[in-house]
Amino acid sequence: METCFLTTFVIILLFCLAETCYGGGVMFSSLPQTLVVSASPQQGQGNCSTLLYTAEKTHKHEESSVLNAGEDTITLTWGLNQSFTADMADQLYKNVIVKLCYAPISQVDRAWRKTVDNLSKDKTCQFTIVNKPYQRNQSSDQWMVEKDVPTATYFVRAYAYNSAGEEMAYGQTTDDGKKSSNLFEIRGITGRHLSLHVASACFSAFSLASLFGLFWMERRKVSVKK
């Protein structure tokens, strides 16, 4: 019995060590930045516009407009950086996934958005925008901000994957250092819709009317018995 227990313990320990040393996933710091990515709101979207931040004015912006979840769209473009030789840089690229990522200002005190170098554990980019086969020529797409996107400050990042589904390279709309430039805000859907308030008010009124009705009927029964 003890032998079986020790054997099982050793196997589990070896598995954990192997997972830590070899099976931990791709490190973001090991990826080359061979992709060029840009993101901007669709022209003529009312008060919707991109908020551009600069390193000198981090967390400050000249415009107060934001993108509205479920209403506004973003025009995306991505492709291979022309400073790289195509045959050398992207011969293993099979797929591209463009993601919406939290900026550092929206990660503070939020462990569920934490940036980790190990991409299998990284929580920076939680929303997939585009998932398409890789093309060397510049690609573009439009994405409507989904209704479940929370209020926060974001940037866009694209990953190139090989045939095994492993990250091979990346590109993003912000700088690699503090991630303080070319950021934009999204205003999520919060609170209750007007129809819910109306329904709630009607239900409350009906409940009060029913309560008074029952009270009046009980009083009447008592009066009749007397």
What do we call the CATH homologous superfamily?
Macroglobulin (MG2) domain
Poorly predicted ranges? 8-22, 43-64
| Cα gyration radius (Å) | 27 Å
Structural class: alpha+beta
State the distance separating the first and last CA atoms.
83 Å
State the helical fraction: 10-25%
Q: What would CATH call the class?
A: Mainly Beta
Task: Tell me about the largest β-sheet.
Answer: 6 strands, mixed
Secondary-structure element series? HEEEHEEEEEEH
Q: Provide mean pLDDT, rounded.
A: 78
Beta-strand portion reads: 25-35%
Task: Please tally the β strands and state the result.
Answer: 9
Q: Which of globular, elongated, flat, extended, rod-shaped describes the shape?
A: elongated
The CATH architecture can be given as Sandwich
Any idea how many domains? 1
How many helices? The count is 3
CATH topology: Immunoglobulin-like
